[in-house]
Write a structure and sequence with these properties.
It is built from 14 helices and no strands. By secondary structure, it is mainly alpha-helical. Among the domains are: 2-101; 119-216, Methane Monooxygenase Hydroxylase, Chain G, domain 1; 227-321. It comes from Cavia porcellus. It is found in: Endomembrane system.
């Protein structure tokens, strides 16, 4: 009896241990189910990781269900071998946990829901990316420069229509994403961030479109003003080239002064070119965002360089003209003085009034004129000095009419002086002849008088003596 009691006690303890193991397994599954329910109700990780986690949960749910089914079968067979049924507390727990493991369907539904939401999110992302791509293309075209304003305005209109289409799609996307986010908050942040960036890109594109349209509308007037200033500068450069490449007329001080004035006027006119070039650069700054201005900028730089070079050449020529005019004026004055002196001498030499004077008076007058003509030498020297001091190219000096005139006047001065000397010599010779003739006639008269007197007094010896002395005197 005691052995039977011991045997039964041992069986009871074994049963209790086995039941405890079964309950532990059931409780473990129940705990897993509870944790899974909590996770499904409040997921905290991103979608891809969540899907991966749900797949793990599906596998675990399958394993738990298989284990519970196996455990139930084992318990059934065990108690069937004992000719009894599974205890109610065990069968109830097994039934409850089997029911709890229907969470597998919830997990599958959750996976399906997340995959659908992920698909929708991906579709939204694709649409956002497409709108962003279209906006980027439009923005790139809006930033492009042109060399044809008419075509650019036509293209701008087309881009504006495309931009309006993108704006409409963005508004629709924004509304759809907001509605989607209300049901799928775990996916709302990435989409909201993308929508935010897309909105920024859209606003940037709109600003660029408005700015470009404004600049295109202004570009026509800027180009027109640029071309007007360009035309004026090119005309000035052409005039300046003609002027500086032309030969200087060195003939007279008046001509030199006139040329100096024309150079000065052109130089003063060029003062406006600097302000025009600056204004042209400002026009290019306004055009540079929509118009190809590289060649135009180089053109402005080249115009500035060429203008400055021409200005320097004009200044050098002006200095040469000023120096030459100053020297030429002095040269002309000395020539005029010499010419006036020569004309006065010529007038004196050829004056008919002098011819009416006695030979002695004419000789005295010629001698006085000859002494006065000595004053021509300083005048001739002054002309020569002025000519040698002319700041004019040497190859030009020899061909100047004034230099020829100076040479002629110098020759004329020499000729007049020579003529005056000859006239004086002739008059002196004539005066000597006349004086000799007068003396000869006087001697004859004296001889006749003495002869007649001697004849009267009869003193021939005295007569011969007187004749001798008269002859000696003669």
């Amino acid at each position: 009896m005691q052995e039977k009691v011991k045997s039964n006690g041992k069986l009871v303890r074994q049963e209790l241990q086995e039941r405890e193991v079964v309950e532990t397994q059931i409780n473990s599954v129940k705990s897993w189910v509870q944790e899974t329910k909590e996770y499904l109700g409040n997921p905290t990780i991103e979608v891809d990781a969540q899907l991966q986690e749900l797949q793990i949960l599906l596998t675990e749910a399958t394993n738990h269900r298989q284990n519970i089914e196996k455990l139930a079968e084992e318990q059934k067979n065990k108690y069937l071998g004992l000719c009894t049924i599974v205890p109610s507390e065990i069968s109830l727990q097994l039934a409850e946990v089997a029911l709890d493991l229907k969470i597998y369907d919830q997990i599958q539904e959750k996976v399906k829901e997340i995959e659908q939401s992920k698909t929708m999110s991906q579709e939204f992302s694709r649409q956002i990316q497409q709108v962003a791509k279209d906006l980027t293309t439009i923005l790139t075209k809006l930033k492009a420069k042109t060399d044809n304003l008419v075509q650019a305005k036509t293209d701008q209109k087309v881009l504006g229509e495309e931009l309006d289409g993108c704006n409409s799609r963005l508004m629709e996307l924004d509304a759809a994403v907001q509605k989607f986010s209300e049901q799928h908050s775990h996916l709302s942040k990435p989409l909201a961030k993308k929508i935010g960036k897309l909105t920024e890109l859209q606003q940037q594109t709109v600003r660029q479109a408005e700015n470009r349209l404004s600049k295109l509308n202004q570009a026509a007037s800027h180009l027109e003003e640029y071309n007007e200033m360009l035309e004026l500068i090119l005309k000035w450069i052409e005039k300046a080239k003609v002027l500086v490449h032309g030969n200087i007329a060195w003939n007279s001080a008046n001509q030199l002064r006139e040329q100096y004035i024309s150079h000065q006027a052109l130089l003063e006119e060029s003062e406006e070119i600097y302000s025009d070039l600056e204004a042209m650069s400002e026009k290019l700054q306004c055009l540079t965002s929509v118009y190809y201005t590289e060649k135009m900028s180089q053109q402005v730089t080249e115009l500035g360089r060429e203008t400055e070079e021409l200005r320097q050449v004009i200044k050098i020529r002006m200095q040469s003209l000023q120096d030459a005019a100053k020297d030429m004026k002095k040269f002309e004055a000395e020539l005029k003085n010499l010419q006036m002196a020569l004309e006065q001498a010529q007038t004196t030499l050829t004056s008919p009034e002098i011819g009416r004077l006695s030979l002695k008076e004419q000789l005295s007058h010629r001698q006085h004129l000859l002494s006065e003509m000595e004053s021509l030498k300083p005048k001739v020297q002054a002309v020569q000095l002025c000519q040698s001091a002319l700041r004019i190219p040497e190859d030009v000096v020899a061909s100047l009419p004034l230099c020829h005139a100076a040479l002629h006047l110098q020759e004329e001065a020499s000729r007049l002086q020579h003529s005056a000397i000859q006239q004086c010599n002739l008059m002196q010779a004539g005066a000597a002849v006349i004086l000799f003739h007068q003396k000869h006639c006087l001697v004859k008269e004296v001889r006749r008088g003495i002869t007649w007197s001697l004849h009267l007094i009869g003193e021939k010896s005295i007569c011969h003596d007187i004749i001798y002395y008269v002859s000696v005197f003669n």
